[in-house]
Amino acid sequence: MARKNGDGGFRPLSNGTIEFQVSTGVDIYGKRQRKAFYGKTEAECRRKYKQFLKEGEPKSKSKEPTLADWLDTWLTTYKKSKVSEGTYDDYTGLAAHVKKHKLGSLKLSDVKPIHVTEFFGTKSEYSYSFLKRMRFLLNGAFESALDNEICLKNPVRNAEIPDKVQPEREAFTEEEVRIILDFAKTDDLFGVAIYIMLHTGIRSGEMRALTLCDINFSDGIITIDKAVKRNGELGLPKNNKTRYIPLKPEVVDFLRSNPKCGPYIVGNAYYVSKEGFRSRYDCFFDRLNKHLLRTGQELIEVKSPHSLRHTFGTICQINGMPIAMVSELMGHHSTEVTDRYTHVNDTNVLTKAVWDYGLPT
C-alpha cells in the first residue's frame, strides 16, 4: 500500500476505483480501527475523508413509533400490571378508537394539538365521560413518551374536547318499575333478566355471565363473581369484587318457578354478546309498549340497560337504605360513585330516611 504523507494509504481496485484506507483509532481492546473511502481519484477519496472528519460517524436512527404502536407498548409496559383487569380493558377499548382513526397512523413527533382536537371532534356523539377518559389515556401516553425522549412535546395538553352538557342520569320511576316488573313476570323471552336486574342492580356484563349456579335458592342469595368483559371473554367483575346480593322471598319464588333450559340466564348454552343482549332488551320494551298500547296505558320511554342499575340504587335510597349498604350491593369502590347513580332530591324522601334511620328521640 503506498503511503501518502503518513496519514493513510491508497490502493487501486480492479474495477478502476481507488480505495483510501485510514486509521480512525483503536477499540477498547487496543486493536487498530480502520475505515475505507472510495472514489475515482485520490482527491475524491480525501474529500470524503475530510467530510467524515467534519460530520462524524452517521448515527443510526431508531424507527420512531406511530401513536398506535406506542399505545400498545405503553399499555403493556406501564398499565397492564398496575391497574385492574376491568380498567385495562377500558384502556384497550379507548386505544382501539385511536387505532381506527388516522391519528393512530401518525408518528409521535408529528402529532399536533389540532390533530388531537380534530380526533375528539369525531367522537362528539360519545358521552362526556368517554371524552375525558380518552383525554386521560392520550395524555398519559404522551407524558410517558416525553420521559422516554421519544417526542419533544405533549400535543394533548393544548388540545380541546367538545363542550358537552352532562346528561341527566336515567332512572325509571317507581310506578314505571311496577309496570315493568308486572310485565316481566309474563314475558318468557327476557322477563327473568329484567326482573333480576331491577331487584339487584347488577351490570349488564354481570347479567350476561349469570348462571343458575350463581343463585342460592335456599338462602336467597345471588353471587356476582364474574362478568363478560369488553373483549367478549369471561372475567372478574369490575373492581375485581365478588359480592353477594340478598333477594326478597317473592323474588326467590319467581326465579324458582322459571327454570331455564341452559346454564346461562341469558343465552342458555352460551352467554350472549353485548349486541345480542341489547337486542333482547330493546325487544322486551317493544313487547311491553305494545301491551300498554293495547290496554290504553301510557307508553314507557326506553332507556339504556344501565338505567336499571341507576333505578335500583335510587329506589334503595328512596326507601331509606344507607348509602354504604347501597354501595356494597352495587359493587362500588366508594360511596362517591354511588352518589352519581342515585337521584334522591325530594325533601319528603330525605325526611322519611331521617325518621327511619336517624337517632332515636
What do these coordinates show?
With 361 residues, the protein is an alpha+beta fold. Helices cover 46% and strands 10% of the residues. It has 14 helices and nine strands. Strands 1-2-3-4 form a four-stranded antiparallel β-sheet. Strands 5-6-9 form a three-stranded antiparallel β-sheet. Strand 1 and strand 2 form a beta hairpin. The protein is elongated and about 100 Å long. The N terminus and C terminus are likely disordered.
Structure summarized in a few sentences:
The protein is α+β, with helices and mostly antiparallel strands.
Termini gap: 111 Å
Question: What's the order of the H and E elements?
Answer: EEEEHHHHHHHHEEEEEHHHHHH
The proportion of residues forming helix, as a percent range, comes to: 40-55%
Strand order of the largest sheet: 1-2-3-4
Tell me the Rg in angstroms.
33 Å
Beta-strand residue percentage: 5-15%
| Total count of helical runs of at least 4 residues | 14
Shape: elongated
Biggest sheet overview:
4 strands, antiparallel
Q: What would you call the structural class?
A: alpha+beta
Q: Give the low-pLDDT segments.
A: 1-6, 343-347, 349-355, 357-361
Q: Taking all residues together, what is the mean pLDDT?
A: 83
- Number-wise, the strands total 9
Could you name the key traits of this structure?
single chain; 361 residues; alpha+beta; four-stranded antiparallel beta sheet; three-stranded antiparallel beta sheet; 14 helices; 9 strands; 46% helix; elongated; disordered C terminus
What secondary-structure arrangement, pairings included, does this model have?
Layout: E1 2-3, E2 9-12, E3 18-26, E4 32-39, H1 42-55, H2 67-79, H3 85-100, H4 113-121, H5 128-147, H6 174-184, H7 191-200, H8 204-209, E5 215-216, E6 221-224, E7 227-228, E8 234-235, E9 243-246, H9 249-256, H10 274-294, H11 306-318, H12 323-330, H13 335-341, H14 347-357
Antiparallel strand pairs: 1-2, 2-3, 3-4, 5-6, 6-9, 7-8
Helix pairs in contact: 2-3, 2-5, 6-7, 7-11, 11-12, 12-13
